[in-house]
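Progress note, sequence design subtask.
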């Protein structure tokens, strides 16, 4: 088991490095081609910022798949399954449409059609939902058209949920990274805990998705130097949906011996495992709720569901008084609580401590929402471990120096008649109060 972990770690590090190193040149390229839209009414940033960050993320995706294909254990994913190729095909198509949208602002219906086509391309290559687990019933097999329709719906919903939440610096990349981390833990447990090789592609997709987000985040944290744009948000949304489809719709729960021992035992055994089988929907619960609320709000106001506004959850946090960074961290907190809470419950569903811990953390999250003016400080021992903007001691010292320099009067200069000052100006003294009119050109 140690060898696959090392290979996943190598794939993750390569994806992070390639994405991180490509983002700088991509930023210069975006500025050169003019992919810097004007500030819109719904934007929270104040300066035009280049987009097209999805180009670097797509490069990280390709690098991660290429490295995994040449590793001893992960190579079997490519030999036994066509899902990595299906993912790459769909990702390339949605990424290309996203690049065009970042530069030319495509119509929303065109992007929706591209999302459906990308999902269809993956379905044609075998990345589709074959069955779904239903509590108290068991595994329900789907017809081809039912599986394809459900696959397309899941891809479109996930892509738009991630796209809707991409409104603050580092928000979408961080939330998807948290989701991918939780999903990786669950998929890895299904593969090696139950010995089901069908979970291997989803585990690989989650590891690569983590690398894409981690490599891009240093450039995208507030204040962001580059945005991922639709080329990035639609790309990571599709990769997350592909991982969900791979494990939720192709890993047969019967292979886990969940339905042995009668209907009552089957229901009891199925419950903790059924919840994580829809884990991708729970880990984007906040973006999904934002998506539903946005559609209802815009439809109620007589607007198009695709019309942009400033009513998203992250905009509401800013209106409550939270700072930009604090609003992002609060969204991170809730995403991590939901994602890792579900994973922990799937492992130890009978442990009351997990339920109590989730309830306590939820209460803490609500408290943070109600205290927008509270700003925690970084401990002194951790000052060197955080970015400069979070080093409160250094910032306080610099502010004190600036205040002292602003209040302290300038030292008085010696009053000497006829002696020039620093800038060549004549010092004001008893004989220099009035200028010499002869030097000024007077006839006298």
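Output:
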């Amino acid at each position: 088991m140690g060898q696959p972990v090392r290979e996943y770690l190598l794939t993750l590090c390569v994806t992070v490095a390639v994405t991180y190193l490509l983002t700088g040149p991509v930023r210069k390229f975006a500025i050169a081609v003019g992919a810097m839209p004007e500030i819109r009414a719904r934007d929270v940033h104040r300066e035009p910022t280049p987009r097209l960050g999805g180009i670097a993320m797509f490069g990280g995706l390709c690098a991660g798949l290429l490295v995994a294909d040449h590793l001893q254990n992960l190579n079997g994913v490519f030999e036994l399954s066509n899902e990595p190729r299906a993912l790459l095909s769909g990702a390339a198509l949605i990424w290309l449409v996203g690049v065009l949208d970042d530069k030319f602002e495509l119509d929303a219906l065109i992007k929706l059609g591209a999302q459906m086509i990308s999902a269809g391309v993956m379905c044609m290559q075998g990345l589709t939902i074959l069955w779904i687990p239903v509590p108290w019933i068991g595994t329900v097999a789907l017809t081809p058209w039912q599986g394809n329709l459900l696959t397309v719906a899941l891809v479109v919903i996930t892509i738009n949920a991630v796209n809707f939440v991409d409104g603050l610096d580092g928000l979408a990349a961080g939330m998807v990274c948290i989701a991918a981390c939780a999903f990786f833990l669950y998929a890895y447990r299904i593969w090696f805990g139950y010995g089901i090789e069908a979970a291997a592609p989803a585990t690989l997709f989650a590891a690569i998705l983590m690398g894409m987000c981690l490599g891009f985040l240093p450039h995208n944290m507030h204040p962001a130097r580059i945005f991922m744009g639709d080329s990035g948000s639609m790309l990571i949304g599709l990769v997350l949906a592909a991982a969900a489809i791979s494990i939720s719709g192709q890993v047969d729960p019967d292979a886990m011996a969940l339905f042995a021992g009668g209907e009552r035992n089957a229901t009891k055994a199925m419950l903790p495992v059924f919840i994580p089988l829809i884990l991708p929907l729970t880990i984007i619960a906040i973006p999904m709720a934002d998506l539903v609320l946005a559609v209802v709000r815009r439809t109620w106001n007589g607007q198009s569901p695709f019309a942009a506004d400033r009513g998203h959850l992250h905009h509401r946090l800013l209106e409550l008084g939270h700072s930009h960074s604090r609003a992002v961290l609060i969204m991170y907190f809730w995403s991590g609580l939901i994602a890792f809470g579900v994973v922990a419950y799937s492992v130890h569903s009978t442990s009351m401590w997990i339920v109590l811990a989730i309830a306590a953390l939820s209460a803490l999250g609500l408290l943070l929402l109600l205290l927008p003016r509270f700003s925690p400080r970084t401990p002194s021992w951790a000052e060197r471990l955080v970015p400069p903007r979070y080093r409160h001691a250094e910032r306080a010292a610099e502010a004190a120096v600036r205040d002292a320099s602003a209040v302290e009067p300038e030292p008085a200069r010696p009053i000497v008649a006829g002696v020039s000052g620093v800038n060549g100006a004549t010092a004001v003294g008893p004989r220099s109060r009035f200028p010499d009119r002869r030097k000024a050109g007077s006839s006298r």
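Strands lie at 131-134, 138-141. Work on this subtask will continue into the next period as scheduled.
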